[in-house]
């Protein structure tokens, strides 16, 4: 049996779709899990159901699991804490333990939200201090992953964007909706600094990490990858407007946005550890966002005020 067999959880989601495609392109035998969908190389299963999930994965006999499935919207986390813990922590623990038992490596996708954002940039050795429940559950997921096996991998990433099935699928692409509604002035946060990364870049890194792991046993533990451009939400809006020549006179920067769920001010991740392994890929934001949103802009050209 091939030594390149990978299970991707959350494979119908924004990142999971990219990860599944990247491993297919790299000639891995792939199986994706999805909560409610089936399809080519896609199996429907609720990964919070330990027995069913284990049966499916054991039958596939993977060498690796890339665990993308998570409740990743901080505001939704606050509305369903118990459900978030089941998915972000308990299901992660079950998968990590199963992977270790099968002799497989798990890559757990984590977040820059494990940091409080007060002392960027953050290296892998910096002490986490999550500000919200989302960050706390993702940190707990990291801990149970590495407790299951020190050979597992944690990959922390920032806010992601990429080809979306609906604009609200990414906190970046959803900003295009501001151009569709020109009724009244729209205030957009010009405070918290983000480093958006394209899902294809993160997917490529997952493939490269597992490829290197085969020849380098020291590839394990925590790694960081973030985009290389510092941007507030308003900065992203400005770039979108510039790329597509969209009017934005009705959109104003908000230097002091009202706080909902607490978020880190600047949780920039240092990419040095991965770059020292000659691993990394960065799509410039303007290039990436143009490719991602072009179809949406063409299908419904927003009107100016």
Write up what this structure looks like.
This protein is an alpha/beta fold and 305 residues long. It is 38% helix and 15% strand. The chain contains ten helices and eleven strands. Strands 3-2-1-4-5-6-10 form a seven-stranded parallel sheet, sandwiched between helices. Strands 7-9 form a two-stranded parallel ribbon. The radius of gyration is 19 Å and the shape is globular. The model has no long low-confidence stretch (mean pLDDT 92).
List keywords for this structure.
305 residues, alpha/beta, seven-stranded parallel sheet, 15% strand, globular
Q: Shape from CA axes?
A: globular
- Give average pLDDT, whole number: 92
Class derived from helix and strand content: alpha/beta
User: What is the N-to-C succession of helices and strands?
Assistant: EHEEHEHHEHEEHEEHEHEHH
Rg over CA atoms? 19 Å
Strand order of the largest sheet: 3-2-1-4-5-6-10
Q: How are the SSEs placed, and which strands pair?
A:
Layout (H helix, E strand, L loop, with lengths): L4 E5 L4 H12 L3 E6 L7 E3 L5 H11 L3 E4 L6 H6 L1 H22 L2 E7 L21 H16 L4 E5 L2 E2 L15 H4 L5 E4 L7 E2 H15 L7 E4 L8 H12 L6 E4 L17 H4 L9 H15 L6
Parallel strand pairs: 1-2, 1-4, 2-3, 4-5, 5-6, 6-10, 7-9, 8-11
Helix pairs in contact: 1-7, 2-4, 4-5, 8-10
């Amino acid at each position: 049996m091939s030594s390149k067999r990978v299970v991707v959880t959350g494979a119908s989601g924004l990142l999971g779709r990219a990860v599944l495609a990247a491993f297919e392109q790299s000639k891995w035998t792939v199986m994706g899990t999805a909560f409610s969908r089936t399809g080519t190389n896609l199996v429907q299963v609720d990964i919070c159901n330990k027995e069913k999930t284990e049966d499916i994965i054991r039958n596939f006999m993977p060498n690796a699991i890339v665990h993308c499935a998570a409740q990743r919207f901080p505001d939704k986390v606050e509305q369903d804490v118990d459900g978030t813990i089941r998915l972000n922590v308990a299901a992660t623990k079950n998968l990590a333990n199963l992977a270790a038992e099968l002799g497989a490596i798990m890559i757990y996708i984590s977040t820059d939200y494990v940091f409080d954002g007060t002392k960027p940039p953050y290296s892998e050795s910096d002490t986490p201090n999550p500000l919200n429940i989302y960050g706390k559950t993702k940190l707990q997921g990291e801990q149970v992953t590495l407790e299951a096996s020190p050979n597992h991998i944690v990959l922390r990433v920032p806010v992601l964007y990429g080809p979306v099935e609906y604009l609200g699928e990414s906190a970046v692409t959803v900003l295009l909706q501001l151009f569709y509604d020109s009724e009244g002035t729209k205030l957009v946060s010009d405070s918290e600094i983000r480093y958006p990364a394209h899902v294809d870049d993160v997917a490529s890194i997952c493939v490269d990490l597992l490829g290197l792991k085969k020849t380098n046993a020291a590839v394990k533990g925590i790694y960081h990858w973030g985009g290389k451009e510092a941007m507030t939400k308003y900065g992203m809006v400005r770039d979108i407007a510039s790329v597509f020549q969209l009017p934005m006179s009705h959109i104003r920067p908000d230097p002091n946005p009202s706080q909902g769920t607490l978020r880190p001010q600047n949780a920039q991740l240092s990419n040095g550890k991965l770059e020292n392994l000659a691993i990394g890929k960065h799509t410039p934001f303007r290039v990436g966002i143009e490719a991602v949103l072009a179809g949406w802009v063409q299908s419904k050209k927003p009107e100016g005020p």
